[in-house]
Specification:
This protein is mostly helical and about 120 residues long. Helices cover about 70% and strands about 0% of the residues. The chain has helices at about 5-10, 20-30, 35-45, 50-55, 60-75, 80-90, 90-110.
Length: about 120
Amino acid sequence: MSWSDWEDWKAGLYFPTYTPEQVTASVGLLADPDAFFETAREMVREWPHAANHNLRNMWTGRNAWVGQASCLYAHGSPAAATREAWGRLTLPQQTAANATARALRGEWEVSDVSQTLFVV
């Protein structure tokens, strides 16, 4: 499978420009653990190729990808907007968002029994 098959790439995750509204929407999503978790859960279900690549590969920034892809999925914010939004969160909000991303990863790893966590 090629990177061109990844749903996040096709949706514009790496698009270089963004709006202030996308940053604000990303702050709102990342600061709400329940909404973030539900969005992330739906995103990994709808974007299986991107999730498989980004959650299986231990050397990638898996928490960051969960946040960036979830914001893109929810309201079209590219990764650059989500990175700016991350800087606007308080430390407790960042900690909670990381915990949410870890919980999503854990759920994905357990539910996706056909996948292995390490690529040989």
